[in-house]
Amino acid sequence: MNSKKLRLSLILTLLGLSSYVMAQDATTEEETKPTFNISGSIDTYIHTSMGATEPTYGNSGPSTSFANLKGFSLGMANLIASYQGDKTGFTADLVFGPRGRDAVFAASYTDQRIINQLFAYIKLSDAVTLNIGQFNTFVGFEVISPAVNPNYSTSYLFSNGPFNHTGVRADFSFGDGLVAKLAIMNPTDIVEFNPVNTFTLGGQIGKTTDGGGVWLNLLYGDQDGKLDEDTMGPDDFSNGSLFQADVTAGFTISESFYLGANFSYQTIGEGEVSIGDDIEDAGNDASSFMGFAVYPKFTLSDAFALAIRAEYFSSTKFHPLAAPIGIDDEGDGNVIALTLSGNIKAGPLMFIPELRYDKTSEDYFEKKDGEATDSIISATLAAVYKF
Predict the structure, then answer these.
(1) 136 near 117, Cβ under 8 Å?
(2) With a threshold of 0.70, does the pTM exceed it?
(3) Which CA distances in Å does 184 have to 45, 166, 232, 296, 368?
(4) Fewer CB within 10 Å of terminal CB in the chain, N or C?
């Protein structure tokens, strides 16, 4: 074979191999269809309380999370990078600003208070996905992002957590809308590592339809560790184990009416205390919180909706994880909160004017004249841009 024929043969062979490789790449690409997405939101607001103020840390209004800074205030910038492959993927969810910092309040390292979620996943089958890392809680109706909640301020149920978990979570899809989750995690909101050497178990079972769904969520575990004879100090105290049961539901009743609901009950058992060189039962009663909320939303046009939240929340026996709501000498207290929010759309920008009324069982809010009162009215105007 002369050199010209040899060159022609090599060229044809290389072209054939290139075509084969390109065909294989195209087939693989068609099968996996990996996607990389950048999304997120920004939010800012103005807030005031009428006739009463709670000055702690400059907050104004109810003692729930977020949306309670005075005057013109910042929420957060949320930047979410996600990769979704055929079998594997990840989510890196970063938050900047007061709302984001408060969402990861228990982070030990200041520079990690921008990580809202950071997890990778692998699909073990069509029915089972395994996630590992830090992820937002599956408990409750509301979420951290203001671009998703129907109201801009948040409920007492949401504010009492949990917010985030770090651990391993298996998601199951059994078909016909039946779903479930099982997880083993650090104690609630301890996100970078586990300094207390105890773990929390989590679970969910739910039924979904085209119109909505209902989910039962469970958490159980010691949140602050056990006392250690080798490291404990005098009169050290550790809480008992936490148990939380939560039911969340939401259904589209018609084109213009959606109804959501949330019920949650959390209890922490008897703790332990160090007395001399011994560890003994603390003798304290189990404490708890309980609450329920309903979320009707009326969509009046493509550009306007009206969202309502009506909530009752109570805590007992000086419950250590309950937000301050005003309690009596026995450590018991309750609050009723009513929130009315408008959702005004201008493309990806949403304006949320909001009025909120909170009434506690004890005089808790401080009036401008220094006297205490059991009720407060708050007004907020927020702007949320989702991209």
Answers:
(1) yes
(2) yes
(3) 37, 9, 27, 34, 47
(4) N
